[in-house]
Design brief:
heterodimer; A: alpha+beta; six-stranded mixed β-barrel; two-stranded antiparallel ribbon; 14 helices; B: six-stranded mixed beta sheet; 7 helices; 10 strands
């Protein structure tokens, strides 16, 4: 009974923790690793006016310098600007990102995000564009369709050019999907009048935890540029992750407290049911300290068996769910806010040991009060208990 | 014969009730080695309190309980636990076996607490269960035994550690006639064979008829102390 409660408590707790961690990781991976990157560098004016005119002076060289620095995992030097995308049916405002194929696949894994089509492999007469699934829906186009992108060149002149949709990508953010299109940087560079123009450098660093430190170093190196880390660019995500972290701590705390109080209650009940048995032990000469350690030992054994069973079952449960995914009810709507409709829960192995250790520790602590109650029994009365 | 237990001016008053209850009043008794004594009296006369006090399960309000020249009434609790384990055997009305242990384990348990060698423990437990006629129930748990059988296991448990005396609180109260006689036969035989002092509290005339000494308590005081010749 106690063991079952312990197993179910641990499984429930670990499931919730894994789902929360998966949501956190999915949001972080999707937003940071697929869209924003850890750090971005721009011309200071570019944030307010995302135009080709505000390019990073000597951007190619700076990108190469940063790319050579230790700690940089991947880097993409882009030519980015706002513009319009138009099909035969509709037009809409978009952010056009001129990219280098290889660098982008290393930085945002764009090649792996394609739902349909190929990754800048077609040799069409018209240059290729990769657009989001949502934008394709909005513009009523598909792969192979022609769209027109309109934007300003480096001198502020309006330029329009036709592109053929080579692929549709998909990310969890619908907003990103309908707002962002990718073309080759050299094609866009020619159109804006400067083939080497760079307006954005997106950087992935090796140690994601050091993003603030690396940003500060880059700010010192390049004081004239606007250098922002992901928490600056996505404050809502940053706070949401912070909240999730806190919630995870509270959640684990609640699981442990719940399991401990459940155990405390069950052990107390079992002590009450065994008053006579404990009375006999005390009557025939078992010392109070031995009775105390017996109750604590019993609880420890139960916690060890239940805890281990709970953790092993949880491990396999998370493994299975990680392979098949967990559908979040109403998850379709969440995609507008960057949350995935299907989560793939995963937990580091150390988490199982940590939670197992803490549960067993708390179980032992929870056994002290019932054990103390047990040794307070008066043997003469206890042996006559009904 | 050697005196096993001696009480001097033994009194016990319960004060945790609305009106103080004087359960024992100035009881002066001596029990000799090998005696078969029945403590009788109406309900509330102090029989169980007397057994609890001389068994060290309860402390007297006044007076002495001298066993082996030691007044156990003044003994520290930790020493008293040890003393009980080594010198006193208990048989309770409700058998009070440990439900998760088999008959042989129940009988061995006190010897386990006494840290006796395993072989000796097993041999003695089997021997005692044989003596009470349960050699075929060694590995049976209490729930699978009848009331009479459970009480016989309890007797074997009480005697297994060779205590100086055995206190039995209404041991036949829950037994049918046949089981009660059977148990009394066994206890009388063991009393003789092992020369163990047996002190019963009882209402049961069948026990009283077997006892060689009958002490009658009335309102916590000794009313009569009679000795009988019995086989």
């Amino acid at each position: 009974m106690i063991t079952t409660a312990l197993v179910l408590g641990i499984m429930g707790g670990i499931f919730s923790a894994a789902i929360r961690l998966a949501a956190e990781e999915q949001q972080f991976e999707d937003t940071i690793e697929n869209m924003v990157s850890h750090i971005q560098i721009h011309h200071p004016e570019f944030i307010a006016n995302p135009e080709a005119h505000y390019r990073i002076p000597d951007g190619k060289r700076i990108a190469e310098e940063i790319g050579d620095q230790a700690g940089t995992a991947a880097l993409s030097a882009r030519l980015v600007m706002d513009g319009m995308a138009a099909s035969a049916n509709m037009n809409t405002g978009v952010r056009i990102k001129g990219i280098q194929k290889e660098a982008e696949s290393q930085t945002t894994k764009l090649d792996q995000l394609l739902e349909e089509g190929t990754y800048f492999e077609e040799d069409w007469r018209l240059p290729s564009v990769v657009i989001g699934r949502q934008l394709a829906k909005d513009l009523l186009v598909e792969t192979g369709s022609r769209i027109v992108l309109t934007f300003q060149d480096i001198d502020g002149e309006i330029v329009s050019s036709s592109f053929r949709v080579e692929a549709l990508y998909t990310v969890t953010s619908r907003r990103f999907e309908e707002r962002t299109v990718f073309v080759k940087a050299d094609v866009l560079g020619e159109l804006v009048g400067e083939t080497d123009a760079v307006t954005e450098i997106a950087i992935l660093i090796e140690d994601a935890e050091r993003y603030r430190e690396v940003t500060d170093d880059l700010r010192t190196q390049y004081p004239d540029l606007e250098i922002r880390h992901w928490a600056d660019m996505e404050p809502a995500l940053y706070f949401s992750l912070e909240v999730l972290d806190q919630m995870l701590i509270y959640l684990v705390g609640v699981i442990i407290l719940g399991v401990s109080f459940g155990l405390l209650n069950t052990i107390l009940m079992s002590i009450l049911e065994r008053v006579r048995e404990l009375g006999i032990l005390l009557s025939i000469g078992m010392k109070r300290m031995k009775v105390f350690s017996m109750v604590v030992m019993e609880t420890t054994m139960v916690a060890l068996i239940g805890g281990t069973a709970g953790l092993v079952l949880s491990f396999f449960m998370i493994r299975i769910l990680n392979q098949h995914g967990v559908n979040i009810p109403g998850g379709e709507g969440l995609e507008d806010f960057g949350f995935a409709a299907v989560l793939y829960p995963d937990l580091p192995t150390s988490f199982y040991f940590e939670i197992g250790g803490v549960v067993i520790l708390f179980a032992i602590l929870a056994s002290i009060y019932p054990a103390w109650k047990a040794i307070r029994l008066a043997p003469a009365e206890a042996v006559r208990a009904e | 014969m050697q005196t096993v237990i001696k009480t001097e001016g033994l009194s016990k008053t319960y004060t945790n009730t609305a009106v103080p209850v004087h359960a024992l009043k100035d009881v002066n008794l001596e029990f000799k080695e090998g005696e078969f004594t029945a403590i009788v009296g109406p309900s509330g006369s102090g029989k169980t309190t007397f057994l609890n006090v001389i068994g060290g399960l309860d402390k007297p309000t006044k007076g002495k309980v001298v066993i082996d020249d030691i007044d156990i009434a003044t003994m520290k609790e930790s020493k008293l636990f040890d003393f009980r384990m080594r010198h006193i055997g208990f048989v309770f009305q409700a058998y009070n076996l440990i439900p998760v242990l088999t008959a042989v384990e129940n009988v061995s348990f006190i010897m386990l607490l006494q840290k006796r060698p395993k072989k000796e423990m097993e041999q003695r437990a089997k021997e005692m269960l044989e003596q009470v006629g349960l050699s075929d129930k060694l590995n049976t748990r209490p729930a699978q035994l009848s009331g009479g059988q459970q009480q016989r296991v309890a007797v074997a448990r009480a005697l297994a550690s060779r205590p100086d005396f055995v206190l039995a609180d209404e041991p036949t109260a829950n037994l049918d006639t046949e089981s009660a006689f059977n148990l009394l036969d066994i206890m009388a035989r063991l009393n003789k064979e092992e020369n163990i002092t047996l002190i019963f509290s009882t209402h049961d005339q069948r026990v009283i008829d077997r006892a060689r000494r009958v002490i009658t308590l009335v309102d916590g005081a000794v009313d009569k102390d009679e000795h009988f010749e019995r086989n």
